[in-house]
Amino acid sequence: MNSGRIYKLQHFIPWTRKKIYYLIVISAIPTILYYFFELKWLAIPWVPVALVGTATAFIAGFRNTQTYNRLWEARQIWGAIVNNSRTWGILVKDMVRDTEVGAEKSLHRDLIYRHFAWLTALRFQLRESRGWENVKTKSYNREYLNYYKVPEWEGSLAEELQNYVTADELEYILKKKNKAAQILALQSARLRDLNQQGKINDLNYVEMQALLKELYDQQGKNERIKNFPYPRQFASINVMFVYLLSIVLPLGFLSEFAKISANCVWFTIPISVIVGWVFFTLEQVGESSENPFEGSANDVPITSMSRAIEIDLRDMLGEENLPEPLVANTNNILM
Amino acid sequence: MNSGRIYKLQHFIPWTRKKIYYLIVISAIPTILYYFFELKWLAIPWVPVALVGTATAFIAGFRNTQTYNRLWEARQIWGAIVNNSRTWGILVKDMVRDTEVGAEKSLHRDLIYRHFAWLTALRFQLRESRGWENVKTKSYNREYLNYYKVPEWEGSLAEELQNYVTADELEYILKKKNKAAQILALQSARLRDLNQQGKINDLNYVEMQALLKELYDQQGKNERIKNFPYPRQFASINVMFVYLLSIVLPLGFLSEFAKISANCVWFTIPISVIVGWVFFTLEQVGESSENPFEGSANDVPITSMSRAIEIDLRDMLGEENLPEPLVANTNNILM
Amino acid sequence: MNSGRIYKLQHFIPWTRKKIYYLIVISAIPTILYYFFELKWLAIPWVPVALVGTATAFIAGFRNTQTYNRLWEARQIWGAIVNNSRTWGILVKDMVRDTEVGAEKSLHRDLIYRHFAWLTALRFQLRESRGWENVKTKSYNREYLNYYKVPEWEGSLAEELQNYVTADELEYILKKKNKAAQILALQSARLRDLNQQGKINDLNYVEMQALLKELYDQQGKNERIKNFPYPRQFASINVMFVYLLSIVLPLGFLSEFAKISANCVWFTIPISVIVGWVFFTLEQVGESSENPFEGSANDVPITSMSRAIEIDLRDMLGEENLPEPLVANTNNILM
Amino acid sequence: MNSGRIYKLQHFIPWTRKKIYYLIVISAIPTILYYFFELKWLAIPWVPVALVGTATAFIAGFRNTQTYNRLWEARQIWGAIVNNSRTWGILVKDMVRDTEVGAEKSLHRDLIYRHFAWLTALRFQLRESRGWENVKTKSYNREYLNYYKVPEWEGSLAEELQNYVTADELEYILKKKNKAAQILALQSARLRDLNQQGKINDLNYVEMQALLKELYDQQGKNERIKNFPYPRQFASINVMFVYLLSIVLPLGFLSEFAKISANCVWFTIPISVIVGWVFFTLEQVGESSENPFEGSANDVPITSMSRAIEIDLRDMLGEENLPEPLVANTNNILM
Amino acid sequence: MNSGRIYKLQHFIPWTRKKIYYLIVISAIPTILYYFFELKWLAIPWVPVALVGTATAFIAGFRNTQTYNRLWEARQIWGAIVNNSRTWGILVKDMVRDTEVGAEKSLHRDLIYRHFAWLTALRFQLRESRGWENVKTKSYNREYLNYYKVPEWEGSLAEELQNYVTADELEYILKKKNKAAQILALQSARLRDLNQQGKINDLNYVEMQALLKELYDQQGKNERIKNFPYPRQFASINVMFVYLLSIVLPLGFLSEFAKISANCVWFTIPISVIVGWVFFTLEQVGESSENPFEGSANDVPITSMSRAIEIDLRDMLGEENLPEPLVANTNNILM
Predict the structure, then answer these.
(1) Torsion sign, CA atoms E62, E65, E68, E69
(2) Which end is more exposed in chain A, N or C (fewer Cβ atoms within 10 Å of the end residue's Cβ)?
């Protein structure tokens, strides 16, 4: 997530420069052919271009709406994870009861730290790569990766997990297919034990189990956004229509500028670039917001949110020397 | 679901080629009549065409929005099925309790495998055909069926179910009208037995029963999307307006090109085809995303999701040799 | 609900023919005045017409969106009724317990058949007529009523109810104002008795009562859509703007065609009819989808859904000779 | 709420006549200056007007969408109040139990009649006036107030409440700030007493208390819509843009009509009025639907809905001589 | 929140005056160059400007929709806080029971006053500043800050909290990172004590704990809106496109006015300013509604809502001399 005021034009222009080069070429070709080779028929009337432009604007608008919804829903899910984590904190602290204070504290710590393990496994899973994601495959996004680091690509899951669970549990977890899902199953098994030992009474047990259900819901919602891309058939027509528009735009402008004077047709190039750039930028911004967990600068900041949860719950446990919150780097990127 | 980056133009063009042929014919007719037979009145002013174009763009946009919503909701429902299946796993494992470990394990396996039976019956029901679906009736979709297989059309429900339930239960289920609904009723009857035997206490029994309620909700939501198409009156005006637009488009272009020169009217044909193709493609993409369970390449991948649930739950049961996850085929189609 | 692929043009044209006659007249008048009486000032510039057209397209789009939402919500509510009915089935079967098998079966049947009574009363109430509904007041809709039958207008509530409740209860229900609401109150009273007799334990009693609450919610949501029309102020501007557009359209076309040649002004009539027909059709389709329980061909198919519920629950009770599901008639209309 | 088919044009025209007068003046001024004083520069090109028109149409569309959402949400909340009221009825009747039939009936009546008191206090609070409401401040709305009566402005809260609560309670309620909120607190106190007396068991007590929570939710949602207007910054730009459009419209039409002939510029006036009227009507309809509890003809009919609830619950109590439902008056207005 | 009827034009114009100055300059430059230096090529055809205008209008519309949604959701969350606060009131009063009346009253007061502490800490946290907020960084917003005061910027958290909690608790709270979250944890710890002392029975304890969960949900939703801005990539293209439009607008108008006469090109300046102002105003209104807790005049009025909750709950406790509600200041601003 960018936590600054705005992306600077000097970032946007390089980020979109390949599209600009393309637009220069695609508009120069018909202009040159028209001017030097007198292919006058290249200048088509404006009206078909306007109709394609309207349809493209609609499609781009539709995509941006859905893309925004995906991003916002992803943030809502992580908001819900924050809320449920805090609730997990108070349920553990006040419903898991032992007559011996030290033993009780240790039970609380165990259940809360295993929750951190779940958060860790979840964010590593979410930052894996998918075939339709763009951050590593598009050159302009790869370039931008120089401006920030993705913590889950730098660190190791096993190493981070060992802060939160015992060695035995760690080994067990690492053998499982969906690690996050199985960590929650471990929590559930632990609750059962505590219930059978009488350390959680039957009513409270049901409440705590219900919270695990909600955590499964949030995990599953994350996986839905991660694993189900913006439908490729819609993404495809988006790309096709923008390119089609970029081809017909200069043809339409040719006829408009030719009305003024023969030399004016050269304005076709800058004007096509400007108008085309608007549509390509819309498209590229949409594309790069589509997958809110792909490791892009526009991701939901799940690493720092997980850290914030850890701080809150350890503060609740009364621990000293809490970890520092993660803040945006010098490029205003917060992961 | 297409799990690649994009549909290639070389797939789109053949897939939409019948519309292109049609557009060539429908725009060639008035052009020929105009040019050779001097039916000058065929060239109508642009403004009515623009108005019809705007209305059609709106209608197409509206349809795409609703179509996308249907697809996304279908995926949400299956996401919820994933979540509830995992919750079913932990509830069964930790709320169904027996003093004898082996007996307990067998109870758990029974309840979890019957859940797989429900998933199987549900996806077979969802992949049946309906009168308004397009995948088998439209020639371009039938052609595309060569690129992938629909597992529910290849396999047999009875055969797959016998992996999950006893022969007696299988016979019972196969006699029922709505098999999936009756499998959940069997689960409910089983829970009652276990509750009466004291293997599920009263509070936990209520929780597990509540989960069955949620599974009925998800099944019913699936059936709603399956059995209630995008309303045919809206679909109908969509088709009619696009065809109407394709008829008036060349008439409008005729007058625009005639302004340039007499020979230029021949450009009416390629430009009508390009602009018309944009609208027909929008329409055809909308149509082929409308029914997310019809067996099309854009379906929600319910077969692979069911498999993923099976893997997770059997992993939770501690089974070895788990089945492999289903992956996209070479054409990037995941069912 | 139309369960076919599409409404045929040969249905749409007769259904909208009055609007077509009107459009012929309204565009012929200014054309005749212009041509024969030389009222040249009737030909106004195109730009005001375009602006009115845009505003009308927006308003029509807005209405169609809301209309679709009403229809879709109505279907969602009935989907929820299906789900809750099945849940009612399993709760009754597994939570109402009697040591004597025969007595238990009879209790189950009683509670489940009274649920059918509720469904019946509800659908009769929903198919009553309201002042703003269109199916009986608009001639084109009355004509269309020949193509299908509305079961609730053919049958009698009392007759159908007697299949599900005792004569005493029937008499009691028929005296009540809101029969469906009072049938649920009867269910509630019955649950209380069974709870006091110990046939439903306290925890299960609360669950079953909670389901009655949900059924009240669904009934009330149905009544909301039934009793609160698409706001008449919005419906009114819709109608006014479409008629206003139909008046200014030919005036704008006159000037456009007059630019070509004097005789060409006669094209004003067919073109006005075509463009006007697009807007009137949008409006008429919106109008006839507005009230999803009015007995129109586009209704939510509540009769067949009620029948499907009856089949499922009687199948669950283990009954033989289940009723047949209702299917679409030869005109593809399913009620 | 208007329960008729449509607002007649003969109501709309007087209701919007001030805007029409204004439009005549604002378009006559530049026309006169142009024609008689030859201020030719007043005729500006059409394109800036089109751009302002598009932006205004968007803004008007946005407002109507949000306004509609406010109205529809208000109706949903009241639908939920209806549903919860019926549920309150069955919970009271079947969960509040006394061994003595007469005493039990009296307990039921007490709790249900106090619910009517809450409904009454709530609707009086909702029909108070707010600074941003339009029904009393705009002359065209004041005129329209002759066509119907707002019951909460005619009656007295104290008088109506005494039908439902004892004199002591009435005095207590009238001293409170938020009367509706404190009536629910009274209900809660009553439930506590009954729980402590053993007339509501612990499980049922929790359910009934949960319903009070829902009633607080619905009351609060009502207050949200009542107390938080459509944001004034958005409302403000709406008004400003429509007036700006009304000023530039005639300037743009002047140049279009001047192209035809000098005398034709007089058509600027009627055409500006027609097009301007479309936008002002959109704006005025939006404005008068914005606040669904202000006492306008487009209000949610909360008085008649409260009456309907009273009828249903008294019918449930088995009372005779139920009150009559409220119906729309001769002008089709239902409050 | 502005609680008046409308923002006056005399407020809007100064508030947007910098944009007006900018527009004068940006349109004067090409006009001067065109007129005096005869750079005729500066006059570009209208069509590219129209296309950029359409895309910008779409983007501005999209932003306003999302901005409105953020504001409205913020208000919904605070509505839910109001509702849950009242429910907290009745749960405390009727579920926390002590045989001794005075002791019970004191327990109730303690739990309800600590709730006020939570509200106070929450609103102080929400009114802190973030890097992307505009109220303090944009000169036009800083100017507007003279018209009202933000109570959380004037007061001190510690001082206000001491009205609600003991000195010990105050010290504990002030040491914590997320004070509001830890106050709820204190409530939870208190409930546990009361449950263990038998002053809240087990069933009621679960209900009260569930309400704390909901309060965490609302706090977290607030933090989501506070900490996750309208995505900066979308905000950025908004700003860029509006500025781009403001640059090309006068170029397009130049050619339109030049068609009329050479001197008419001077109209480019006022018309560019008017049309550009519409788009800049849309943008600026969107920007200043984006962050509903930043201390702007358009904020959700969380200070007065917190006061209203305090009044209601103290009224419920039966306290005399309740505080006065906060009302809008003379500039109609309610915080």
Answers:
(1) negative
(2) C
How many CB pairs below 8 A link D and E?
A: 168
Type of residue numbered C287: E
- On chain E, the residues whose CB falls within 8 A of the CB of A311 are 177-178
Residue D4: burial class (beta carbons within 10 Å; 0-12, 13-18, 19+): middle
> What is this model's ipTM?
0.95
Among the partner residues C131, C217, C237, nearest to D281 by beta-carbon distance: C237
Contact C293, C151 (CB under 8 A): no
Q: What is residue C124's predicted lDDT score, i.e. its pLDDT?
A: 97
Residues from chain D contacting residue E83 (CB–CB below 8 Å): 213, 216-217, 219-221
Give the distance from residue B134's alpha carbon to the nearest chain C alpha carbon, in angstroms: 9
Smallest Cβ–Cβ distance between E278 and the set D132, D241, D255 belongs to D241
Four-residue CA torsion sign, B230, B234, B236, B242: negative
Residues of chain C with pLDDT under 70: none
Q: How confident is the model at residue D61 (pLDDT cuts 50, 70, 90)?
A: confident
Placement of tokens 């990037």 in the chain: B332
Which residues lie across from A333 on neighbouring strands? A2
CA distance A96 to A198: 9
Q: Which residue in the block uniquely carries the two structure tokens 């009337």? A: A45
**Which residues have C-beta within 8 Å of that of residue D207, sequence separation ≥ 6?**
C206, C209, C210, D91, D95
Instruction: Tell me the shortest Cα–Cα distance from E30 to chain A, in angstroms.
Output: 16
Cβ distance C260 to B45 under 8 Å?
A: yes
The yes-or-no reply on E/A contact (3 CB pairs or more, < 8 Å) is yes
Give the pLDDT band of residue A1 (cuts 50, 70, 90).
confident
Q: Say which residues have a Cβ less than 8 Å from residue C316's Cβ, sequence separation at least 6.
A: B181, B182, B185, C86, C89, C90, C93
Query: CB neighbours (10 Å) of residue B278?
Result: 24
Neighbours of C84 (CB within 10 A): 23
List pLDDT tens digits, range A318-329.
Answer: 999 999 999 998
**Identity of the residue numbered B214:** E
CA dist E309 and E316 (Å) reads 10
Rounded CA-CA distance C181/E11 in Å is 55
Residue among D201, D198, D172, D199 at smallest CA distance from D186? D172
What size, in residues, is chain E? 335
**The length of chain C, given as a count of residues:** 335
- CA-nearest residue to E185 within chain A is A90
**pLDDT (tens digit per residue) in B234-267:** 988 889 999 999 999 999 999 999 888 888 899 9
Handedness of CA C313, C317, C322, C323 (dihedral sign): negative
Q: What is the DSSP letter of A262?
A: S
Cα C14 to Cα A187: distance, rounded to the nearest angstrom: 66
Q: Which of A55, A137, A220 lies at the smallest CB-CB distance from B82?
A: A220
What 8-state DSSP symbol labels residue E229? P
Task: State how far residue E112 is from chain A, nearest Cα, in angstroms.
Answer: 19
Which positions ≥6 away from B189 have C-beta within 8 Å?
C90, C93, C94
Beta-carbon contacts of C8 under 8 Å, excluding residues fewer than 6 positions away, are none
Taking contacts as CB-CB distances below 8 angstroms, the residues of chain C near D69 are none
Inter-chain touch A234–B83, beta carbons under 8 Å: no
Give the residues across from C2 on adjacent strands: C333
Distance CA A88, CA A316 (A): 11
Say if the Cβ atoms of A41 and B87 lie within 8 Å: no
- For residue A115, give Cα distances in angstroms to A86, A89, A187, B317, C43: 11, 9, 8, 21, 75
How many separate helices (H) and strands (E) can be counted in chain A? 13, 0
Alpha-carbon span A213 to B3, nearest angstrom = 29
The full DSSP string for B94-119 is HHS--SSHHHHHHHHHHHHHHHHHHH
Chains D and A touch (3+ CB pairs under 8 A): no
